[in-house]
Design a protein that fits this description.
Elements (H helix, E strand, L loop, with lengths): L3 E5 L1 H5 L9 H14 L3 E5 L7 H12 L7 E7 L2 H10 L5 E7 L2 H8 L5 H17 L4 E7 L6 H13 L4 E6 L6 H15 L3 E5 L6 H14 L4 E5 L13 H10 L3 H4 L11 H12 L20 H9 L34 H10 L7 H18 L5 H9 L1 H7 L7
Parallel strand pairs: 1-2, 1-8, 2-3, 3-4, 4-5, 5-6, 6-7, 7-8
Bound molecules: zinc ion.
Length: 412
């Protein structure tokens, strides 16, 4: 029986969203939180984009050091020989990649403007896989962009060719959110059976069905005899109407009628980390969590109407499917209501020692404190808002890694 794994793509699909972005330190914190939560892989960025190079290398170093273990760190790139070569030139230690190419007739004609045939697409993908393997890629996912508008036969041909060239997974991208739970179940079951590779579900919310589609798509994959890998983003942040929300996907798989009995996670998911990761992503992206967000919205456990309040007081299970404690909620949060000294890009040593002292971070001497302060100032320049405690802890604990994350010198 196949298992379900999560590949979170916040650090790729989330950050490529219009009007949104994250500092490299924030992306690193997200990788750390995803690892704590039990997510199988973080799609951590773009290995061909030069301003990501230091960040990607530093995160692979954290992996080497055991800090980012056992999570996989996957890079996203186009399925061309040039991009694969550039990725391994800029980020030589990268092990996990997903290479992407459009497979629908709409996109092949519309994007390549008649210069590429379906045969060319197959050749490009095959060559890119071969080159990636030759450069030492350990896992290669092959993404069929706009798979939901691609003919079934061509998709099977594409996936089979990927398998024959040694790809590890096929990513079924419902790029425009066009599928519904029935169509995606059927095609993903067929692909699992015919292609014989684990399938990734990458869904979007243009029609409000991203979570439902990833869950039923995964059911199709498992019923077709393969492992399923669901692509999620924290708070559902992603291109246009967003992606499948991480917490909602986990809740659906754990709590929906009968699902948990049949469909199991490959790695245990610690739902208790949900509150922390969602709050952090909301702060880092500067996007509030909608009050009606599943599990982590302000109203997810709020009751006002007489009948509901009475019912939930007698027995929470009358009106709640799951307990707020399961999501890591319920702990009191400290909010400063009087004098506050915050970290900033123009902070001085005395204010900084005060902030760090409150967090029980002691420095060996003034020189040591000044070094960390300098890094925190740079982090503030990039974040443009006060750093949170975990970010300051991180900088104090891994100053050399922080230095790399904060270095954005354009490469020649
Ligand atoms: Zn996407």
């Amino acid at each position: 029986m196949g298992r379900i794994y999560l590949i979170d793509v916040t650090n790729r699909d989330g950050v490529q969203t219009a009007r949104l972005g994250l500092s490299k330190l924030a992306k690193t914190m997200i990788n750390i939180y995803l690892n704590e939560m039990g997510v199988f892989q973080s799609e951590f960025g773009f290995p061909t984009t030069r301003h990501e190079s230091n960040y990607l290398r530093a995160n692979l170093e954290l992996q080497e050091m055991g800090v980012l273990q056992p999570i996989h760190l996957g890079g996203w790139l186009r399925a061309t020989t040039e991009d694969v070569e550039k990725a391994f030139e800029l980020v030589p230690a990268i092990k996990d990649i997903n290479i992407s190419i459009s497979t629908s007739r709409q996109m092949i004609n519309g994007k390549f403007q008649g210069t590429k045939s379906e045969q060319d697409i197959l050749l490009m993908a095959a060559e890119a896989i071969d080159v990636a393997r030759a450069h030492g890629a350990q896992t290669i996912g092959v993404n069929a962009e706009d798979a939901s508008r691609t003919d079934d036969d061509f998709l099977i041909k594409f996936g089979t060719l990927a398998r024959e060239h040694g790809a590890d997974r096929l990513r079924y991208c419902d790029t425009l959110g066009y599928d519904n739970p029935f169509t995606i179940y059927n095609i993903c079951k067929l692909l699992a059976q015919e292609v014989g590779l684990p399938i990734e579900l990458h869904t979007h919310g243009d029609l409000g069905m991203a979570v439902a589609n990833s869950v039923t798509g995964a059911m199709g994959v498992i019923d077709g005899g393969q492992d399923a890998y669901i692509n999620t983003t924290i708070n559902g942040i992603g291109e246009r109407a967003g992606n499948a929300d991480l917490v909602a996907v986990v809740l659906a798989l754990k709590k929906s009628k009968g699902l948990a009995r049949k469909y199991k996670f490959g790695r245990p998911i610690r739902l208790s980390k949900a509150w922390k990761i969602c709050k952090y992503a909301s702060y880092a992206f500067n996007v509030p969590i909608p009050i009606n967000q599943p599990g982590v919205g302000a109203n997810a456990f709020a009751h006002a109407s007489g009948i509901h309040a009475d019912g939930v007081l007698k027995d929470p299970e009358n009106y709640e499917l799951y307990d707020f404690k399961e999501l890591g909620r319920g702990e009191p949060e400290m909010v400063e209501t009087g004098r506050e000294i915050a970290s900033g890009e123009y902070s001085g040593i005395s204010g900084f020692r005060h902030v760090m002292g409150k967090m029980d971070i002691e420095f060996a001497d003034r020189e040591d404190a000044e070094e960390i302060l300098e890094l925190a100032r740079y982090a503030n320049v990039l974040a443009q808002q006060p750093l949170v405690a975990d970010e300051l802890y991180f900088i104090a604990k891994y100053p050399e890694i922080a230095r790399k994350l904060l270095t954005l010198t354009p490469l020649a």
